[in-house]
Amino acid sequence: MRGKFIVVEGLEGAGKSSVIGLIKETLQAAGKQVEQTREPGGTPMAEAIRDCVKHDWNENVAEETELLLMYAARVQLLTNRILPALDNGAWVVGDRHDLSSQAYQGGGRGVSAQTMRAISDIALNGFKPDLTIYLDVEPAVGLERARGRGELDRIEQAGLAFFERTRERYLELAGQDDSIKVVSAMQDMQSVHKAVLDEITLYLSSQNEATA
Ligand code: TMP
Question: Whose Cα sits closest to atom 4 in ligand 1?
Fold first, then answer.
């Protein structure tokens, strides 16, 4: 049976990594074969693109350049890893996917809806995650956590207003799509994990019912 694609999204400092660990453990305990991916990245070429987009270039990086690089990496990952894994029956847990581009480039950078739709259609051809967990954090809080982890990369150096716009777009899109579940990352870690576990358990039982 074809696997499912579950994605974790959120601003820097939202706590994606520990939530991804929890989801993987939960799926494995339910007998699923699990693969983990991250975006941009996840194949040798896509990892090189990740280094490139995060690098602090001493030149203006055009919005369209950033956007195209994100999608180039995504297509590599989708073609070489995500689709083959799903075809093999594995469940894929993704650290970011298309919603990141919609929020950061579409919301944060202000790339037009028309451009966003056009590139997404060309690159993804209608492919979308089965379930997305969006960890919602106030940008000031998230960035403070990210700062605590070390130096900020090129994207993380964008001002607070950029992250406010990004968060707003995440919430707007989550409100329009039932497959995107919003979990507040402003709570303590235990409460975040409980809320995520509830969503994953619910999803697993809906899948069991569908195949029963
Ligand atoms: P992270 O996965 O370690 O958080 O780093 C990825 C960075 O790239 C993060 O700042 C979000 C940004 N990003 C975009 O701007 N657009 C995208 O489509 C993706 C996947 C990531």
Answer: 12
- The residue type at 17: S
Between 144 and 174, residue with greater pLDDT: 174
pLDDT at 135 over 80: yes
Sheet with 131-136, strands from edge to edge, namely: 34-38, 91-95, 5-10, 131-136, 180-184
User: Domain containing 91: what range?
Assistant: 5-211
Per-residue tokens: 113: 């809806």
Instruction: Summarize the confidence of residues 76-97 as an average pLDDT.
Output: 98
Distance 32 CA to ligand 1 centre (A): 27
CB atoms within 10 A of CB 51: 11
Q: What is the CA radius of gyration of the chain?
A: 17
- If pLDDT is split at 50, 70 and 90, which confidence band does 150 have? confident
Is 70 near ligand 1, meaning CB less than 6 Å away?
yes
Any bridge partners for residue 136, and if so which?
A: 184
| Length reported for the chain | 212
CATH, residue 162:
3.40.50.300
SS3 181: strand
Q: How many domains does the chain have?
A: 1
What CA–CA distance (Å, rounded) separates 212 from 207? Answer: 9
